[in-house]
Amino acid sequence: MSILPDAETFKKLADGSLRGIGPTLLRGGLTALALPYAAATALRNQWYDQGILRQQSAAVPVICVGNLTLGGTGKTPLVAWVARQLLAQGLRPAIVSRGYAAQRFRPSDEAAELAIVLPGVPHVANRDRVAAAAEAAALDANVVVLDDGFQHRRLRRDLDIVAIDATDPFGCDRLFPRGLLRESVTGLGRAQAIVLTRADRIDATGRDRIRSLVCQARGDRPPAVWLDTRHTAVAVRESDGSVAPLAALAGRRVAAFCGIGNPAAFRHTLTDIGADVVGFRSFADHHHYTPADVHSLAAWAGSTGAEQAITTLKDLVRLGTPRLQRLPLAAVEIVVEPLGDPAALCQLLATATHRGGQPV
To answer: What is the model's pLDDT at position 6?
Structure first.
């Protein structure tokens, strides 16, 4: 099992919900560690802003979809949505990513998930995103979607889209490792578009507050585009690729588990579609399931009285098994749906993919 805490436990530690001498001392230690991290990220951004560190351009336009926090914003469904808009505009997108947590000779979980929901769209994983973009262009892509690349500034981009989770927009308002922020919120000044994910989970007053804080972080400059979205379950995916309707889970007793950045959101999704969640477990984000984990999960799921084991698509591709002993295992497929008119963001995508006024 992973020695890392699951996402829910770490968030409770970061936001102060975990009380006592131990958590308090640990928060103090993490605060001390966050100071050099803050200094390093600020200096690095300053060097890029001043041109001391130089960006490199790709042969094709680059659309970056990133976030300000560590996991949990629902970025992967947004990457898929952006790629579909580019396909609808007649373009040939390729996804480029670092390939975080990929195992030897196996794609990362994001790459495997996107291969399922975006068949035919190539995915190039490489720690060197500049080299990956060149490889994507060689595969005949005429636009690159840079997945999780907002902090990877070496590759010049034509558009930066940042996803912010409405349920925890600023990572407990602390920089890593004391909180979940990858960099200062002032970094949002580099983004042209902000997409508020899970906006349906908060009221209009809460949305306005987040918008105001983002504007302040950007030096009172609103982003060119702001789009509120929700995450919607659309289908149940089996490990063999077959698809079942969501109604298959309605009223069904399920043992649910996940290793993602926002496990609470996954549980909400299951409740929304009418599943009877009789057991729930969460692991650290990008958790690598060992044979011992699978055995433990199977024993636990079987003890809950569940009829079905259910997880996220990311976790399903990591596990690669259709069953947990006697229980069938499937995943819920999630998509991003705009709550307002996405025309402004689609126009921004079209503009970014026309260099010098000419289509790519």
So the answer is: 66
84 CB-near residues (< 8 Å, 6+ apart):
118
- SS3 state at 43: helix
Instruction: Specify if 139 maps to a domain.
Output: yes
- 18-39 mean pLDDT: 91
Alpha-carbon distance of 174 to 186, in angstroms, equals 13
Overall number of domains in the chain:
3
Residues 275, 321 within the same domain: yes
How many CA atoms, within 13 angstroms, populate the side-chain half-sphere of residue 333?
19
Give the C-alpha separation, 81 to 159, whole Å. Answer: 15
pLDDT at 2 over 80: no
| Domain contains 360 | no
Site of tokens 């400059």: 221
Question: What range does the domain containing 244 cover?
Answer: 232-337
Same domain, 94 and 157: yes
Task: Tell me phi and psi for residue 253, to 5 degrees.
Answer: -75, 120
| Residue 280, helix vs strand vs coil | strand
pLDDT of residue 3: 47
Q: Are 65 and 75 in contact (CB under 8 A)?
A: yes
- SS3 sequence, 317-334? HHHCCCEECCEEEEEEEE
| pTM summary value | 0.91
On whether both 279 and 219 belong to a single domain, the answer is no
Q: Kindly state whether residues 91 and 138 are assigned to the same domain.
A: yes
Assess whether 98 and 146 both reside in one domain. Answer: yes
1 in a domain, yes or no? no
The span from the CA of 282 to the CA of 262, in Å, is: 9
